[in-house]
Each structure stands twice: as C-alpha cells, then as structure tokens.
Amino acid sequence: MNLQEQSCWLLLAFESKLGTRVVNDILVIWCKQLGRTLQEFFETDAQEWKAVCHLKDDIIQQLEQAKEKLVAQAFLAEQLEHDAIHMMTVLDPEYPKLLKSALTRSQIPSVLFYAGDLDILKRQTIAIIGSRNASKTSLAFTRATASYLADYGANVISGHARGVDRAAYEGATSVNGCTTVVLPHGVHKLSKVQMRDLRAGIEAGRVLLLSQFHPDASWLVSRAMERNLVVTGLAQVVIVAESDCKGGTWEGANKALKQGRRLYVCHTESPDVLPGNKLLLEKSNRPLIWPTDNLAAVLAPLLQESNNLREKQNSSLNSSTQLSLLAVSNE
Length: 331
Hints:
Elements: H1 3-15, H2 20-33, H3 38-43, H4 46-53, H5 57-67, H6 70-82, E1 86-89, H7 97-102, E2 111-115, E3 125-130, H8 136-151, E4 155-158, H9 164-173, E5 178-182, H10 192-203, E6 207-211, H11 221-233, E7 237-242, H12 248-258, E8 262-267, H13 276-284, E9 287-289, H14 295-319
Parallel strand pairs: 3-4, 3-7, 4-5, 5-6, 7-8, 8-9
Antiparallel strand pairs: 1-2, 2-6
Helix pairs in contact: 1-6, 8-9, 8-14, 11-12
C-alpha cells in the first residue's frame, strides 16, 4: 500500500470520527465488494457516497471535513514509515483471522499499527490479564507462568500496563521467549525509554507491538477497555492472575468468556489477592494452583489445550469463506 492510500485509511479510520461499524460498512461495500481503493473513495463526491454506500448526510459531512486533513495524514504516514511502524488493515490477508472471529463488525479495528514479526501470532497465544495494583503473590505467579509458557514456545500476550501486564512481559522476555504487547494508546505515546526497551525485542524477532488507536491517541479508560477485547481476541486461552469484582480485568475476563475463550484463574490462599478470582473460578472452573512445587504439572495441561484449540481454530478459520468479508458471520 502506497503512502497516499495509507493516508486515506488514516482519514477514514480516525479523522472522520465515524464509529467502527460505519467505517467497516464502508470498507465492505467500497473496497471489498467493488474492489476500489480509499484514494478513489476520497476523490469522488458526496453524491456517489450516498448512492453507493447509502450514507446519511451527517456522515457525509464528517467525511467532507476529514478530507481537509489529507496533507497532515500524508505527513503522519511518512513519519510512521520512518519509525518502522507498519499499518495493517482489516482487508489485508495477514490481519489475524482469530481476532476477526472473536469480534463483531462494530468492534473489529479497521487498522492495526505494529512493529515486529507478525508470525509471532501464528504460535499458540496465551493472554495473561490482571490488576495494575496486583499483590506480590499475583506478580510472582505471573512472572513464573509467563516464563514457563514462553520457554515452551507460546506467545504470551499482555496489555502494556503496570502490575500484571508488566510482569507478564518481563517473564516472557526473561527466557528470550515471544510476547505480544497490545497498547491502550497510540504508538507515539510510548516514552523514549519504553520504546528503547521494546525495540531490542522487536529487532530480535521476539516482541510484537500492536496498537489499534491513532498513533497520537492518549490513554483513556475507554481505550483500555477496547484494548482488552483485542488482547483476549488474539488468544486461545486467557489466564487471570488477579481480579477484583469490578474494573478492567473483571470486564475483560467476562468478555473473554463471551468470546468463547478458555479462562484459567490463579487460585491461591493468599489473603492479599483480590476477590474476583473466586467468582471467576465459579464461572470457568479452571484453577491454576499457586504457589506450587511443580509448575509443569499446573501449566502443561493448559499448554496442551491451547495447542489443540489453535489447531482446531486454524482448520476452521482457513475453511471459512465469510471471514474475508469482515467476519459477516459474527455481526
């Protein structure tokens, strides 16, 4: 995709301020069904937008306003290329099919920004989620679990926050394993120190950095919640290290169950672990006992289940003809 087309994707996905469902509907009609580019879309007029894509006047007005920002988006596309940040669209063949199958058309990010090797997502992928203010017990569980899983070839995915997310990243990278980091903000909001820390793993082919947000988008609670859907949607199995009965981890775990993900929960007698673990165990009935003298006995069955799920999903997704049309079957 050339820089001009990338600029048009940035216009539609972000500068138009349109909802995800509307953006994806336009992509289905204009790009997928008609086989036309977004550059052609923004070169045409409002009359054709209305006739072909059945757009209302308020949406057309937003698109007209977005067109005025084309030069700025061209500059941004050049900047991303300079920073080795790539843009993957929902219509690209490398866009994760598992993520498409987990989300509705109102949820599927039309654009993902990334740095690193996308083949990391072809591994069995296990998400670890948990509190930003996790206890020492939960952090020890997370590091040990992430290290074990990564050492045995799994891609450990987390959401780049303090607490459990950071411990998962540290655990996976401590054994030179593979990990995917999904940002709750834009890639340009990483500090120089954070980017330097990630860059070494990216260049070594062990870290994949992902963001579904505009590169300059700041952290918001709503964005963190949207990010959680991608974290769990990319995984075969989700592990809860520590959860309260409300908040981001609680919502993320329950949405993971709705996505059909297998949910494992840290089970410990430690008094400083939040109470959400117990309630989630009642829903999932998949405890991971901690502490343990035999981590392999606890995690080896989980690894095997994750691998079996990956093989079944690959077979199912590869045979699906609907996923190429923005997961129409999951609307």
